[in-house]
Structures are given as structure tokens and as C-alpha cells.
Design goal:
The complex is a heterodimer. By secondary structure, chain A is an alpha/beta fold. Chain A contains 10 helices and 10 strands. In chain A, the strands form 2 sheets. Chain A has a 6-stranded mixed beta sheet, with helices on both faces. A 4-stranded antiparallel beta sheet of chain A has the order 2-1-4-5, with helices on one face. By secondary structure, chain B is an all-alpha fold. Classes of the chains: A alpha/beta, B mainly alpha.
């Protein structure tokens, strides 16, 4: 049984088919990358899985259970946590309270071990992404790179079985990219059964982490395989670079 | 020269008075209000402050809903009116004692808030504001239609007083203390809720609903909770106010009340809970006492002067009175951290010495 199983998922916005008949799966402990040019439906696919958009047809199964059409907070409580492409912090709250909101949700509260306090758990989550220094700073005063990491800490607070990162490297400088790569690898090592899905433009950073890549183009899946295979795939190169003369 | 004097007085005020922690400031204000009857004020002056206490509960309840959860309500007088009419109808038709009707009307306010919360949660932002604005008007229509039960335009008169066994003058003092304690209790409860973990989740909904959902928060539940808590305290204020004035009429549902609560809250500091409470006291005393009893300007002029003062202060302190005080304190603390020469007032003196 796969951790996440997406079957023939389709979403139309009027005449535009954003996601067309896409099927894929994610296994436990696997890091899967989803790549594709702008407008290929990566983010729409994310929204469909996390319940922010309703699909027109197709099914999404999580741990064998059909979660198609469930409300976003219910899906989050089942164990699928996600981040956003454009950072969405709670600007009036301090950094640590941003994480605490996720800990206050049913799943977040349940996952606190009895020996830890609520506050301790929140600090631990910030430690994982290296944000403890900015703990009490209001989120509106925090820079973009740190907010990207805050997004991840907030998702991790739910102790998800499937972590979905929407362009985690977007707008980061090489140093921050490197740091984030290392934190993702450490998270993967600490929780070997957790599946991770990453949508990304920066192929160089992505290819180092992922074990399997899915390529989307105009809403359709055009290729799937190991990073080395994908970079040599003719169709993929065509989509990214244009056809050879 | 005069402006220089004022500036020095102001900086001395900032350095000495604003340096007191906010909790102590709140306690001082409360003690001041507690000891106010010692100066033996006329009953009408006491009544202004008694009403202000109830309006402060009302403003704080609005602040929890709007300042913390971000659910804009332009018809909050609805809950005030529901409290007023619930206690009025129960006393008038069933002759139930005051200590039964007030808790019951709070219960009615709670149920109404939950009932109204459901349709209101389907809309957001400006549309929510418009929807909430409609409800008090609907209730006014219903009250006018069912004349034989509600007595329509005339209103229900002669509701029982709180302390009928006391002599006339003592009643005002007793009522003054009763409402003040009620405000103190409700203020603390609302403040605790707003600053609890539940309040934190409410702020997350104000900031970003989508991200809140992604964190696994059931936002419908928290929005309904905010509506319900707000409805409870607003209807409590309404029902106590009805017995204070011994009348339940359509004035409790007036549109002005829904909008005055916005003025008080923005003036005091949106989202702080204690800000609106202070704001109500300052603005009510300004309107009802300073501009009516001391200066005694004719009504149209009173409204113009009042509005002008409010506009000037809102422009000067866009984040409200409470936020202005806390910001100044943070500035002072920062100044103290940066150089060890002490509070700002010392520095101004030192500058003088150099000259």
C-alpha cells in the first residue's frame, strides 16, 4: 500500500485544464520531486491534494483511505502538512506563536509527548529549522528567508506522515538554499517513514535531495523516474529548452 | 516659549507616567473609579460612568470579535438589543425577578450569536460587514410588527431596579459599584480569553485563514466561538443596561450604537481588549460630561467638537491610545538598553547642561 495515491486527477478552470488525468504515488520514507515549467499545474496539484481546491474527477487516497473532497483542516489532521509558495505567516503573532497555532490543532496537540510541555515542543520545532534566535520577534519583522523556514517549522509541528513543500527554495540565496537542503535531509533521516513531496523550479538544489522526479507539462504528467534519467529524458529537455532545430 | 514648556511637560509625562507598567496603570484607573463616589458627585454624573461601564463591556466584546478574530461586525447593537429585549419581555410578561432574567437573556444572546454565526461564516470581509449590519434592522422590523407582545415603538417601561430596597441616592452608588465590578470581571475574562492559546488561534484566523486551515485549525469552530463569547458579553451589557434605565426600547438597537462601538475601539486600540474599555470612559466622559455639563455647547456643536477631537486623536495615534502607551514604553526600554544614561528625561536634561 502506498502512502499517497493519486489516480486520474483532473481540475478545470473554465476552459483551461490545469491538471489533466495525473496519477502518481508516494511511498513511505520517499522524497519525490515534482517539476515543470510555469503554469504546468504543480501548485494546483498541491491545492487539490491538501483540499484547498475541489477536483473535478479522480481520487486521492492517503494510507488507503479516500480523502478526496475533505476540508483542508481535516486533511491536515490526517497527517498531510503543506507549506505555501508565497509565505503566509501570521504577521501579528511572534514567530514561536506561529508554530503554536499548529500545535493547538487536534493532531498537533495529540503528537506532543507527555513529558514535553506545549512551549518546549514549539521551541524544538524552531530548533529543527534554526529559528530559535528569532523566537519572540513578531513575524512581520522577520525576513523572507526566515519566513520560508518558519513555514516549514509550522508544517513539521503537525508531525505529518506526508510533508508537502511548495517551492521551498523560492527567493532564497545560495547560503539559505544550502541550509534548507541540509534541514530537509536531516528531517528525512530523523523520520525515516515520512514521505516528502517537493515542488521546485531550482532543479540543481532539488536533484540532490530527491529519489524520484515527476515532470508535469500543461497539466499532464510527461515523465517519471530517477533524477539521472529525467535529466537525460528527451521530452523533458524539449519542454524546458524548446525543440531542437 | 509656551510650546517649549508644553514639550518639556510632555516629555516629563512620557518619562514618568508612561514608565509605569500597563497592569499598574489599569489598576490605578480601577482604583480611581472605585474611589470616585467619595467626592459625592451628583447622581446624573454617576449615571454617566455607570452607563460607560456597560458600554465598555460592549466595546470589549466587539473587540474580541473584530480585533482578534477579524470578523467585522457592523451590527453589534443586535446583541445589546437582544439582551435588552429578552430581559424586558421576561420581566414584563412573566414578572420574573431580575436575577433570573439577566442570566436567561445572556443565554438568549449566546443562542442568537451561534444562530447568526452560521450564516455569517459563509461570507467574508465587506460582505460580512453588510450582512451583520442587516440583522439589527431585521429585529427592529420584527419588534414593530409584533406590537402586542413587544409594545413596538413605545418600548417596555418600568422594569425592576437592581436595589429597590435602598434609599434613592444610595441606589445610584450601589449600581455604580455593581456595574464597575461587572466590567472588571468581564474585562478580565475577555482579556484572558484573548491572550490564551485560543486567542492566539483567533489572531491566526485574522492574519491568514488559508494558512490557519493548513495548520489543521477548524476555523469555523473558532469563528463561532468568537461570535458566541462576543454575544454573551454584549447581551449581558444590554440586559443590565435595561434594568438600569428601567426601559427596553428600540434605542438599544439603534445604528448609532453599532458605529459608536467602532469609534471607541479604534480610539482605544483595536485588538487590545483593555484599550476599548479606557476609550469608552474617556470618550463618554468627554461627550456626556465635559461637553454637556461643563461647557454646555448646543447639541449640533457638541457633535462637531466631539468628532473633531476624535479625528485629531485617531490621526495622531492611528494604533489607538493603548498601543500608543505600550509603544512609548518599548521606546523607553530600548533607549535604556542602548545607553545607560537612564530614561529619556535625564538625557534631555543632560543636553541642556552641554549648552
Amino acid at each position: 500500500m502506498h502512502l499517497l495515491e493519486v489516480e486520474k486527477l483532473t481540475k478545470r478552470f473554465g476552459g483551461l485544464t490545469a491538471v489533466n488525468n495525473v496519477s502518481f504515488h508516494v511511498d513511505e520514507g520517499e522524497i519525490v520531486g515534482i517539476i515543470g515549467p510555469n503554469g504546468s499545474g504543480k501548485t494546483t496539484l498541491f491545492h487539490l491534494i491538501s483540499g484547498f481546491l475541489k477536483s473535478d474527477s479522480g481520487t486521492i487516497k492517503f494510507k488507503g483511505e479516500n480523502i478526496t473532497g475533505l476540508a483542508p483542516h481535516k486533511i491536515a489532521n490526517k497527517g498531510i502538512a503543506r507549506t505555501f509558495q508565497v509565505v503566509r505567516p501570521f504577521r501579528h503573532l511572534p514567530v514561536i506563536a506561529n508554530v503554536m497555532v499548529a500545535l493547538k490543532s487536534p493532531r498537533g496537540a495529540k503528537k506532543i509527548e507527555w513529558i514535553k510541555t506545549f512551549e518546549r515542543k514549539a521551541i524544538d520545532m524552531l530548533e529543527d529549522v534554526g529559528l530559535t534566535e528569532l523566537m519572540l520577534e513578531p513575524a512581520e519583522n522577520v525576513g523572507h528567508g526566515d519566513l520560508k523556514r518558519l513555514e516549514m517549522a509550522r508544517a513539521l509541528a503537525l508531525e505529518p506522515d506526508l510533508l508537502m513543500l511548495d517551492e521551498p527554495f523560492g527567493g532564497l540565496n545560495p547560503l539559505e538554499t544550502d541550509f534548507l537542503t541540509k534541514s530537509i535531509q536531516r528531517i528525512h533521516l530523523d523520520h525515516p517513514s515520512r514521505g516528502i513531496v517537493i515542488v521546485e523550479h531550482k532543479l540543481y538544489a532539488l536533484m540532490k535531495i530527491v529519489k524520484r522526479v515527476i515532470v508535469l507539462h500543461e497539466g499532464e504528467k510527461i515523465a517519471e523516474g530517477k533524477p539521472e534519467e529525467i535529466t537525460k529524458n528527451k521530452k523533458v529537455i524539449e519542454v524546458y529548452m524548446g525543440k531542437a532545430m | 516659549m509656551v510650546t517649549g514648556y508644553f514639550r518639556r511637560a510632555y516629555s516629563s509625562f512620557v518619562a514618568h507616567v508612561l514608565d509605569i507598567p500597563p497592569r499598574l496603570l489599569a489598576l490605578l484607573l480601577f482604583l480611581l473609579l472605585l474611589s470616585f463616589p467619595i467626592v459625592n458627585p451628583p447622581s446624573s454624573t454617576l449615571l454617566i460612568l455607570t452607563t460607560a461601564s456597560l458600554l465598555a463591556i460592549f466595546a470589549a466584546s466587539w473587540d474580541l470579535l473584530v480585533g482578534r478574530t477579524g470578523q467585522i461586525s457592523l451590527g453589534h447593537a443586535l446583541f445589546f438589543g437582544i439582551g435588552t429585549y429578552a430581559t424586558g419581555l421576561l420581566s414584563y410578561h412573566l414578572n420574573w425577578p431580575i436575577w433570573v432574567t439577566i442570566p436567561l437573556s445572556v443565554l438568549v444572546g449566546f443562542l442568537a450569536a451561534v444562530l447568526i454565526g452560521f450564516p455569517c461564516l459563509r461570507v467574508k470581509g465587506h460582505y460580512l460587514a453588510l450582512v451583520t449590519m442587516a440583522f439589527p434592522i431585521i429585529l427592529i422590523g420584527l419588534i414593530l410588527y409584533f406590537k402586542n407582545i413587544t409594545r413596538g415603538d413605545a418600548g417596555i417601561w418600568g422594569l425592576p431596579k437592581f436595589f429597590p430596597f435602598l434609599p434613592y441616592k444610595q441606589q445610584f452608588i450601589a449600581e455604580y459599584y455593581f456595574t464597575l465590578l461587572l466590567l472588571f470581571a468581564s474585562g478580565i475574562i475577555l482579556y484572558k480569553i484573548a491572550n490564551s492559546k485560543t486567542g492566539m488561534v483567533m489572531v491566526s484566523i485574522l492574519d491568514d485563514e488559508l494558512a490557519s486551515k493548513a495548520c489543521g485549525v477548524n476555523i469555523t469552530k473558532y469563528k463561532l466561538m468568537a461570535f458566541a463569547i462576543s454575544g454573551i458579553f454584549a447581551s449581558l451589557a444590554g440586559s443590565v443596561n435595561a434594568h438600569l434605565l428601567q426601559v427596553a426600547n428600540l434605542a438599544s438597537l439603534r445604528v448609532t450604537l453599532s458605529f459608536m462601538v467602532i469609534v471607541w475601539t479604534i480610539f482605544g486600540g483595536l485588538g487590545t481588549i483593555y484599550g476599548p474599555i479606557v476609550g469608552v470612559y474617556i470618550l463618554q466622559v468627554l461627550d456626556q460630561y465635559v461637553l454637556t455639563k461643563i461647557v454646555d455647547v448646543p447639541t449640533p456643536w457638541r457633535i462637531i467638537i466631539y468628532s473633531a477631537i476624535v479625528i485629531v486623536f485617531v490621526l495622531k495615534w492611528p494604533r489607538g491610545l493603548a498601543r500608543f502607551v505600550t509603544d512609548k514604553q518599548e521606546d523607553l526600554e530600548e533607549a535604556r538598553d542602548i545607553d545607560e544614561r537612564g530614561p529619556r528625561i535625564w538625557r534631555t536634561y543632560k543636553k541642556k547642561e552641554k549648552k
